[in-house]
Amino acid sequence: MKPDGDVPVYVISVAAKLTGLPAWMLRLLDQEGIVIPTRTEKKQAPLFRQRHCQVGTDPPPH
Q1: For a FRET experiment, which of 9, 39, 52, 56 has its CA 20 to 30 Å from that of 46?
Q2: Which residues have C-beta within 8 Å of that of residue 38, sequence separation ≥ 6?
Q3: DSSP state, residue 44
């Protein structure tokens, strides 16, 4: 089953592996508002969507 582009499915370590970017870079992109992941309720950990992990494509709309 292919994940929906709007369903949060990847923790930062998995998103880093899928994109080839280090986790610190994904955190920086999040802090700068370039990539806006969904957050968990308790820990506020970022959850990246499939569209965030598509390197070489246009950035997703906010």
Answers
A1: 56
A2: 8, 46, 47, 49
A3: -
